[in-house]
Amino acid sequence: MTAEHAVLPAEGTRSHTWDAAGPPVIELDGVTKTYRTGTLEVDALRGVSLTIDEGEYVAVMGPSGSGKSTLMHILGCLDVPSGGVYRLAGEDVSTLDETRLAEIRNQRIGFVFQQFNLLPTLTAWRNVELPLVYAGVERHERRERALAALDRVGLSDRVEHRPGELSGGQQQRVATARALVTDPALILADEPTGNLDSSSAADVLGLIDELHRAGRTIVLITHEPDVAAAAQRTERIRDGRIVPVTDPGTGGHR
Ligand SMILES: Nc1ncnc2c1ncn2[C@@H]1O[C@H](COP(=O)(O)OP(=O)(O)OP(=O)(O)O)[C@@H](O)[C@H]1O
Ligand SMILES: [Mg+2]
User: Fold this and answer.
1) What CATH number did the domain enclosing 122 receive?
2) Can you give the residue range of the structural domain that contains 114?
3) What does the pLDDT look like over 66-92, one tens digit per residue?
4) What is the domain count for the chain?
5) Could you tell me the sign of the dihedral formed by the alpha carbons of 148, 153, 155, 160, in that order?
6) Residue 230 in 3-state DSSP?
7) This model's pTM is above 0.90
8) Once rounded to an integer, what is the mean pLDDT over residues 24-35?
9) Is residue 198 one of the residues assigned to a domain?
């Protein structure tokens, strides 16, 4: 694994050494998350411990409301745990300031969501270049890299289309291009095929597989066993806890 794929970007003010035998990309230790809405408290995660090594492709499965998206938001530094420790590439994220977290989110993590989350007024390539705008990449290079990413997902002939002019599968491929345009080390996909027909779903899973083969660490959230089968390893979550897979042969249905 080269430094360019390290999850934490090099930083001017602090020294960081990286090698292939480095710490796990993801290490959750007793992570809890409690949402408070008015007087109501929901314990969405109740002590999740999970280790994911660099280059692994892990599926997280569980029923609706079990805490999958909550987990994904924490893994992606979009939200913080209420308790426990999350170490990202060996660093306790609670010690990182917001600037650093934003830098990690922008440069080292690629997100793919079920609801594509594309900006409706922007063309496909403008949507794909957005993470590069935030990263301060120069205009000409942004366009080139956005077009290359769209080519990679097979959408060279749709670069000037707006999301509303694309099929659901094409929109998710644009979203995947946006996730990979920064060349992230970690890809987090939350039900990326949830709104797609089976052929578009296969396309998107094929892209994720390609990213995995290129050395990326992948966490794929799904409630479909067929989708989870694409991963090397499956973790099951239920009521905010990781539960053992009882029957690996069938994906551990319980
Ligand atoms: N922002 C929030 N504020 C309050 N409660 C929340 C919030 N987000 C999620 N929850 C609650 O936390 C629990 C876990 O939600 P989460 O979205 O993680 O589930 P999920 O496994 O992703 O479900 P689904 O498969 O339906 O997407 C649910 O009971 C949900 O109602
Ligand atoms: Mg969810």
Assistant:
1) 3.40.50.300
2) 52-79+98-248
3) 999 999 999 999 999 999 999 999 999
4) 1
5) negative
6) coil
7) no
8) 97
9) yes
Phi, psi of 164, rounded to the nearest 5 degrees: -65, -15
Q: Does residue 102 fall inside a structural domain?
A: yes
Best of 31, 33, 61, 70 to mutate for ligand 1, by most ligand atoms within 8 A of CB? 70
**Main-chain dihedrals φ then ψ at residue 57, nearest 5 degrees:** -125, 105
- Classify residue 46 by burial, with Cβ atoms within 10 Å: 0-12, 13-18, 19+: middle
Q: Is residue 221 part of a domain?
A: yes
Residue from 42, 79, 235 whose mutation best tests the ligand 1 pocket (most atoms within 8 A of CB): 42
| Ramachandran angles phi, psi of 81, nearest 5° | -65, 155
pLDDT digits (tens, 9 = 90+) for 8-22: 665 543 333 334 567
Report pLDDT digits (tens) over 153-169: 999 999 999 999 999 99
Is residue 114 lining ligand 1, measured as CB closer than 6 Å?
no
